[in-house]
Design brief:
The complex is a heterotetramer, with two copies of chain A (371 residues) and two copies of chain C (378 residues). Chain A is 23% helix and 28% strand. Chain A is an alpha/beta fold. With 378 residues, chain C is α/β, with parallel strands linked by helices. The chains are: A alpha/beta (371), C alpha/beta (378).
Amino acid sequence: MANALGIILFENPSVDVAGLTAHRPMPALSFLGRYRLVDFMISNFSNSGINHIHVHVKEKPRPVYEHLGTGRHYNINSKKGKIRVLYGEVETLNKVYNTDIFSMMSNISFLEEDKNEYVIVSSSYMVYTANFEDLLHTHIGSGADISIISHSTDQAKDKFLHCDTLTLDKDKRVTGLGLNLGKVKTRTISLDTYILKKSLLLKLIKKGYQTSSLYWFNNVIRDELDHLNIRVIPHRGHVFAINSLQAYHQAHMEFLNPVLLRDLFNSNWPILTRTNDSEPTTYCDKAIVSNSIIANGCKISGTVINSVLGRGVVVEEGAVVVNSILLHQTTIGPGIHVEHVVLDKYSSIQHVKELKGSKVNPLYVTKRDSI
Amino acid sequence: MANALGIILFENPSVDVAGLTAHRPMPALSFLGRYRLVDFMISNFSNSGINHIHVHVKEKPRPVYEHLGTGRHYNINSKKGKIRVLYGEVETLNKVYNTDIFSMMSNISFLEEDKNEYVIVSSSYMVYTANFEDLLHTHIGSGADISIISHSTDQAKDKFLHCDTLTLDKDKRVTGLGLNLGKVKTRTISLDTYILKKSLLLKLIKKGYQTSSLYWFNNVIRDELDHLNIRVIPHRGHVFAINSLQAYHQAHMEFLNPVLLRDLFNSNWPILTRTNDSEPTTYCDKAIVSNSIIANGCKISGTVINSVLGRGVVVEEGAVVVNSILLHQTTIGPGIHVEHVVLDKYSSIQHVKELKGSKVNPLYVTKRDSI
Amino acid sequence: MKKNNMVAMILAGGRGTRLEDLTGKIAKPAVHYGGKYRIIDFPLSNCANSGIKIVGVLTQYESVLLNSYVAQDHIWGLDTKESGVYVLPPREKSDGFGLYRGTADAITQNIDFIDSFDPETVLILSGDHIYKMDYDAMYRFHKNNRADVSIAVLEVTLKEASRFGIMNTDQHDQIVEFEEKPKQPKSNLASMGVYIFNWKLLRKTLLDDLTLEKSSHDFGKDIIPALINDGKRLFAYRFKGYWKDVGTIDSLWEANMDLLSTRNELDLSDPSWKIYTQDVNAFPQIIGESADVKNAYVNQGCVVLGQVHNSVLFTNVTIEEGAVVKDCVIMPEAVIRSGAKLERVIVGPHSEVTPQLSKVVKANEPIQLIANGGEHHG
Amino acid sequence: MKKNNMVAMILAGGRGTRLEDLTGKIAKPAVHYGGKYRIIDFPLSNCANSGIKIVGVLTQYESVLLNSYVAQDHIWGLDTKESGVYVLPPREKSDGFGLYRGTADAITQNIDFIDSFDPETVLILSGDHIYKMDYDAMYRFHKNNRADVSIAVLEVTLKEASRFGIMNTDQHDQIVEFEEKPKQPKSNLASMGVYIFNWKLLRKTLLDDLTLEKSSHDFGKDIIPALINDGKRLFAYRFKGYWKDVGTIDSLWEANMDLLSTRNELDLSDPSWKIYTQDVNAFPQIIGESADVKNAYVNQGCVVLGQVHNSVLFTNVTIEEGAVVKDCVIMPEAVIRSGAKLERVIVGPHSEVTPQLSKVVKANEPIQLIANGGEHHG
């Protein structure tokens, strides 16, 4: 068991997955047909033996509460551990003041009462797998005050746009914190994941809150670069930053690579989620399905290529679905052709014959829409 | 199994239990040491075979979510039934617009999707026990469009202040809806509990929402008195309207009557709540306890008379507690005398020697206070 | 304790020897069915959906897996404060260990268990039938008829009737005679082995039966005829819908194939009557570029790279590129290797089918079983 | 399946015959203790608090109540996706029904169960000891010593030592000799019956032991000595704190009285190591106007109108006005009627004590039991 509290902060305002995050908070966002984004970080925590978790929610907490429940499905012993959803103990005058620092500050007693020596501060929009028990050991061994989990990429022009970038000195100490504007190919990206002592986190929250009521946690970190020993721990493996509709669509398309899938869905590192008790998926006589990820409860009579289908999706005869993401309980009517489309829950395409977005601009259809 | 959805609306702004409701929403308010107010209505629903329940929360939903959990402890089968906490799907511009009608309106899809034919609309601040399966049969048999559960009292000068009063014609049809200002002794009080068809509720919500964005559900009912057949079903048994600090204190003091206790804690009608796994209570050598209700986990070395103690309360040697309500994890230091006091959670009296309120004005000590 | 309307007792002690190696290590009610379920999920989900709170499961043979499976009562939401699934294997008594000597004896040996809930009625079920049924509706039927016993019946053809226990009824569906597998059936109402008894009456009848030396302690053979003879009010409750007893490899295969039929009567997609089952770790199903999946029922965790026609694939099955699967039932965690060809075969859990194990069964021959894996916990 | 570090197996088959009528209908680990608990809550809560996920409970005698109690794994939070409490009574085998012939045999008969979780280590516990212990700390001790076996030991007086299995150790606490109830003890380290074994080694040792005709298949008598003889690395893990074996009416009474002591070592109020137990419906305790409660440990649901001194009252006990209870242990749902007087008595669950049943036991006489109620489910 790792001696750490896991914290999942909400994302800062630069993260915006179009209509998807207007209908629900980021942790509850559907991903890969049967998951929600938060499943990945909570599975990381649970599989690492961390059973005390704080999930901060900016708005609309209901779907997060309902999805997380008692934590039973995440292997969190509900008597000994606890997933706590923290939301709105104190009201802000204006949304702009609802920063992650403010949220931690207004729930500070839960942090103070926690018995763990360390905290892992993370975010739900960064999707990756990591053993935090190992990372915690690395952190303790390094002597750093704070470790930031980092990811080196040479695709920074296309990916991780608007994510924090890190400048390092020779000793892997962080000397600068910037923003990836897509101008340089090679970057060290911050995974918005920090390992530190709880006592230090408490100090930083209070300091940040006093400094400015508009401060976010990464602002506080930047202020401390000269004062504290802040280092990186490089992360190996795939990382997806789901901070825009394009990134959301792109991540799904990348997952259609079988090698990547095998890497991520490793039976020793289960991605845990809540079951919906859906029946298996039915492929009809005329179904043509290729290179796709499909959740349970679907009925497929048409063609599905390079796509991801959520629970209970119906693709009727003659319909063609290509390079698209259909969230749960959506329907594609007979003969309809959709391409590069993201369909939000319960929406139904029955009347337009063709609906096409592009790789750079996937088309988003809103929740419960009928077109 | 009753064919009804149970709805618990939040209380209107006239209900205010001093500091107690500033720290938590009404459903999560501690009651009788080990309960929270909402336990009574949810137990009524569950014991009546109602396993689909909507609980509307005005603000600070966390304690309600955490207390209700999956509903396991209320005997709600989590696969077949569901307790849904409904909160803030749509934001209001101003708190004053956050009426019960607005809350139902912004969560209308959950209501529309529910399969039950009837609804029972209730509130958590009205404490009573009732078999809603029987009341539903009575409602159906009466041919009324809406039944309001009512309570006749001849103590309306002291009790049920600011509650809705009902004027009836000879046939028990409701002809008027007023407010108990304590001027008349005998009154028929509305228990803020309505039985009607779901289809009618949907119509009334939409109508009320269109009429005024400041309308509450009882405003809508009042408007319909002439148009619909609205009747009362009298409730037999004890009723407590917890709508002020005085009423809260008074209800606790009345519960110290053994006859009333036996009536309410009937083993065929369990009041269900979440366990906290506290150890039993320890009475020390010098303890003097009389006519009191005590939760588990207390340590009593002093004197406790006519009082209600929540979980984990400590009464040290020489302390005297009279006519008081000590919420959980509070401490009364050695030699200290408190009388007619309501102590909120985690507060501690260590320095003042004496703390006295009165029956009409009980003294409230705020959460985590130390005096 | 609060009175429960009805306690359900599921007879789940069948050895299911005709299911061959599939039940070598597990009891029949735990056998996999329908892509993700086990057979006993059906009576248990029916109980949950019917509002029943207390379920006793009477197990007998090599049943560690079955016992620990049904003990996870949260699967069916039966883990509330006052509900539960209770596993009831035969107990050590002061006079040594007992076995259940018949369906009725299994209940007799657990009279103390049932008494402790003080129920008005007891529902007796079988653990190895596939069907969706509202026992609460049957309970209301029972009450409305002021019945002593209600027996769920299925209308079968007169030809089939000789394979069942047959209820002969009057015009009000009151049972006047019971015949076990009659050669000349007088009615087409076959007992489904689903009974509601008034507990006081059943209790007395069971204790009386215990003293009868010649009794086989069986509901159909002994208890029901005795109650009819005693002039009790027994009623036949007509059930409409899909019902299947899966006692053989062929019927297990057929029951799975029924799910692929366009007139799939069982309809597992109805959100108001879900069948609940263990939530096994699995990613969504992955259909590869080379896959050809048609007329198939596929569960999560499957990776399909080969050809799958007219088949049911259970959790975490892998069909490698170049494998051909037709008219098959492939149970959880099985792997069909590249080059293997299967037709009209059931592949057992955790089995591996290499090209050498290819098996193509002709249409008029009995379904074959390949089982070279084992069953696991959890 | 993901590897679990350690599977716990609780030996809970004790008949507890010395507990007289208290165990007439229930197994010893299910006996009530401490106002609201059952004895087996202690090892189970310790497991939950130590992060153990899989617990097997080996039951034997008349254990329906025990079986159904521990099967409610949510009580200890052990109902997560990959955790569970598995009830393991003796099973019907192809060669008929078995019984557990000894502590080691109980494990041997469940090798298949343990194997299915593929654990690295197995923790063996007893179901009838009262103590709080962090098995995860013991596991770290086991790993740090690169031990094959670790045995938790208690430091007792040399006088007491002859009642225990005694570990003779070297200066590093490695065990060099084991003596069962030695007349001349060489050490004061008594085995608590808590073992961590590397599973591969234990598995082999158990299978070897099975073939030994003279073996009693017992951990203390057979397995541990054999491993020492084989030169394996066995270490004694020193436990500090409260530990009690409640095998007799007197020791059960004493253990309850320990909770009233000012130096109550067990400390059930520690929020970081709670003992979890079934959540029974009960209102808060009510202390009436006429009550006199001093030096008492009282659980919810009690109604006290009489005198209660130096006693432990369990859930839903009623002490009527005018009743006098001193130095007593009153188990759940018992009623002490007006005018009854009790001293140094244990009153069993659901019992009713009228004035006629008054019993005052002198200080030097053994504690007496009044049990005229029964045990119930749920």
